[in-house]
Specification:
The chain is mainly α. Helix content is 76%, strand content 0%.
Length: 130
């Protein structure tokens, strides 16, 4: 199974599990979409996401420099892994500001899919019955 298949399967599985939990009623009385309010209450999460996105962007920048200089590259699994653990915005920013990995479908499809999955996870966490 190739890398893109793994990323796709994991993201879709997580989205399906959350959709099923949401349909089964594992949410509060009202649906909450106040993302800024949620992150305001969860400053540690916001700090983590800021740090991981900077690290991910820097990893893309280093990989781009290594590609130009013909040096040893950062592995695809590492770059996608950083995106998966919260650095999807940094990955997307790195891809398009540095023009790096924009022709590799692992990234052009995988990073946006990871970002959608992360938004679904945050939305679910915001609305868990508590």
């Amino acid at each position: 199974m190739n890398m893109m298949s793994r990323v796709f399967l994991i993201c879709v599985l997580i989205i399906q599990i959350i959709a099923m939990l949401f349909i089964k009623g594992f949410h509060g009385e009202e649906i909450n979409i106040a993302f800024w309010e949620f992150f305001g209450r969860n400053k540690i999460l916001m700090i983590y996401l800021g740090i991981i996105n900077v690290i991910t962007f820097l990893a893309f920048a280093i990989d781009k420099l290594h590609a130009i200089k013909g040096k040893r590259r950062i592995r695809i699994i590492t770059l996608l892994g950083l995106a998966f653990v919260g650095g999807s915005a940094g990955a997307l920013l790195g891809m398009y500001t540095l023009r790096h990995k924009t022709k590799v479908y692992y990234f052009t499809v995988g990073v946006p899919l990871i970002m959608i999955m992360q938004a679904v996870v945050v939305f679910f966490v915001m609305n868990i019955r508590g």
